[in-house]
Amino acid sequence: MGIDGDNNMLSIRYVQEEDNEFWFKLDKHLSQCEFEKKIRDKMGYVLLENNVPIALLRYNLFWDNTPFLTMIYVKQEYQHKGYGRKLIKFWEENMKSAGYEMIMTSTQVDEEAQHFYRKIGYQDSGGLIVNVSKFKQPMEMFFTKAI
């Protein structure tokens, strides 16, 4: 899908095998096997500027029935230009057209993303504290949004 972008051609498409190198430069948390599932199940997107990939988004289904944004990442030099917002809006519209009425995401309390999510209409919906030593981290905040 083409979208307007300050004299640059922006497009968003499902992740493809050819995105492997780009994807793993930005996403250090996904295994190769899960990447292949994202391709197969069309649960990942790539945003391109002038046919160059600059951002990614991936999701899964929380409780097997609610779209849950698990990662959005915009290359550093393209941040703060509205690309993340456009990518999330595209995902939200896809989820709504697929019949979903609510979406979710999360971020750690020590990350700035929480302010971004609130600004685009997500509501605080609780948190999770992980105290298992190997996985210990700051509280994970959950957000929901009706679509």
From TrEMBL:
Residue ranges constituting the N-acetyltransferase domain according to the UniProt record: 10-144
Pfam name, any one: Acetyltransf_1
SUPFAM superfamilies: Acyl-CoA N-acyltransferases (Nat)
Domain of life: Bacteria
Cited CDD domains: NAT_SF
Ranges in coiled-coil conformation: none
Name of the protein in its database record: GNAT family N-acetyltransferase
Taxonomic source organism: Kineothrix sedimenti
Classification lineage: Bacteria, Bacillati, Bacillota, Clostridia, Lachnospirales
